[in-house]
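Researcher: I'd like a candidate sequence for this fold, 492 residues long. If you have to choose between options at a position, lean toward the conservative one.
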């Protein structure tokens, strides 16, 4: 054991001995249940002129402690921030003060006292009574940054939140932004709903699901990869505007912008189309930014990005021509497209057609250029199994993806409501699965039945909330905007 480890072990032992002493004299802090907190740090600071001289009751964690003799200062951290507390023996009593000086950084206290300003003009609370509410048996780190601590920060988010104010701020922004989504949609007469997380089929997207087993039913079930098909069933049932904010689960790779579970908002509106969804997308994103940050102009990792509507638009084929110098309007056959792919160094898989090649060229050569908000429209039907065909060019779907900072943040289309075409698309997806594409869509007979009952013309979309949160909080990793990101089990 190193000297540092031995020192830490001794300090932890001392903390436990302090707790045992408190318990032995009938002052066990863990028996306290309720505390009357009247004010928080930020409230006191913002309203000092009104509150000066008044008695308040605050509670929070000791973050700093200094002093000597019969007077001390401590910094107490609550939900809003920190405030200084001045503690004198002659005000709190000799016995209380004697106990107070044994308290450690990280302990949680209740403090009653009056609000005043120190000689250095710092707004503070002059304590008249102090009570220990919770004894911290661990040692808070003095410094909590650097690459070597990054993994531990995600694993021990509760410590990260205590010692890193900016981390806490990011999740406050996240909460405000999600609240703004609800405000925006509720004002447009959308109804928030909940759909199953467990299902016997994993549909609504091309993705690998997580598989689990229901013991009573004796069947495998799947964590949802999308909420789309259930929400469209509700449109069939007569709810004309619905949305759901919730977790999706995809058993795929992890990266700086991918986590196995993530949050989206999906929304569907009867009698609307993908153009309506564009208007909603650009306005809802700008609304989120304005509500959470006070501006629609953000700085992400040194890049200035303007989320203000209207956003630019370009078709996927035109984008490929602009950035990859490939004009798919001139390519008439799948064989020609495959030849182009090979020349560009794109892997050609069994069953790939012209539409798949367009998508691959787009991903490889175009996405990296899409910094400012832009709508990419008119996707090939082969990669759009749930979208309505463009009546003027049936090889393409009335669909868009919204990109910001090279990332896809929204996917939307005029929903396919032709049950005959939908079944054919699903059957084509099954052929792709047989060819080895385990992310191709499954057949969903009940969904076919639903749209045979009658799905009105409908516009729908999904927006990835976590990536938007990365942008709004200037966070380099998706783990920075997830309170408890997925982590490898270090015990195995």
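Model: Candidate sequence:
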């Amino acid at each position: 054991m190193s000297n540092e480890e031995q020192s830490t072990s001794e300090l932890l032992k001392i903390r436990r001995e302090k707790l045992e002493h408190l318990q032995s004299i009938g002052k066990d802090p863990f028996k306290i249940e309720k505390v009357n907190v009247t004010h928080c740090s930020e409230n006191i600071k913002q309203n000092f002129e009104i509150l000066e001289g008044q008695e308040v009751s605050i509670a929070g964690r000791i973050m700093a402690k200094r002093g000597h003799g019969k007077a001390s200062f401590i910094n107490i951290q609550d939900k809003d921030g920190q405030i200084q507390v001045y503690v004198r023996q002659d005000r709190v009593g000799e016995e209380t003060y004697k106990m107070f000086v044994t308290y450690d950084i990280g302990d949680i206290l209740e403090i009653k006292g009056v609000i005043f300003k120190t000689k250095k003009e710092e707004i503070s609370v002059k304590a008249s009574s102090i009570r220990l509410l919770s004894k911290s048996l661990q040692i808070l780190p003095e410094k909590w940054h650097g690459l070597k601590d990054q993994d531990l920060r995600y694993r021990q988010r509760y410590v990260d939140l205590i010692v890193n104010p900016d981390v806490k701020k990011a999740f406050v922004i996240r909460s405000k932004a999600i609240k703004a989504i609800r405000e925006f949609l509720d004002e447009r007469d959308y109804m928030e709903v909940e759909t199953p997380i467990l299902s016997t089929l994993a549909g609504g997207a091309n993705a690998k699901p997580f598989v689990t087993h229901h013991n009573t039913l004796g069947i495998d079930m799947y964590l949802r990869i999308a909420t789309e098909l259930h929400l469209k069933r509700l449109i069939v049932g007569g709810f004309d505007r619905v949305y759901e904010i919730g977790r999706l689960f995809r058993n795929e790779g992890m990266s700086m912008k991918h986590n196995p579970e993530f949050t989206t908002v999906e929304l569907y509106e009867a009698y609307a189309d993908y153009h309506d969804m564009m208007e909603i997308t650009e306005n809802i994103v700008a609304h989120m930014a304005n509500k959470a940050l006070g501006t629609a102009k953000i700085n992400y990792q040194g890049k200035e990005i303007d989320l203000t509507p209207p956003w630019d638009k370009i078709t996927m084929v035109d984008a490929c021509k602009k950035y990859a110098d490939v004009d798919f309007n001139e390519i008439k056959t799948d064989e020609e497209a495959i030849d182009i792919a090979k020349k560009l160094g794109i892997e050609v898989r069994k069953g790939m057609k012209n539409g798949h090649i367009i998508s691959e060229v787009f991903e490889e050569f175009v996405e990296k250029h899409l910094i400012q908000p832009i709508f990419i429209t008119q996707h090939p039907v082969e990669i759009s199994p749930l979208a309505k065909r463009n009546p003027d060019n049936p090889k393409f779907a009335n669909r868009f993806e919204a990109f910001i900072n090279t990332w896809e943040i929204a996917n939307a289309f005029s929903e396919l409501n032709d049950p005959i075409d939908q079944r054919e698309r699903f059957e084509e997806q099954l052929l792709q699965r047989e060819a080895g594409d385990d992310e191709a869509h499954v057949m969903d007979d009940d969904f076919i039945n639903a749209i045979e009952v009658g799905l009105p013309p409908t516009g729908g979309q999904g927006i990835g909330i976590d990536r938007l949160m990365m942008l709004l909080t200037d966070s380099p990793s998706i783990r920075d905007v997830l309170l408890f990101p997925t982590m490898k089990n270090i015990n195995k």
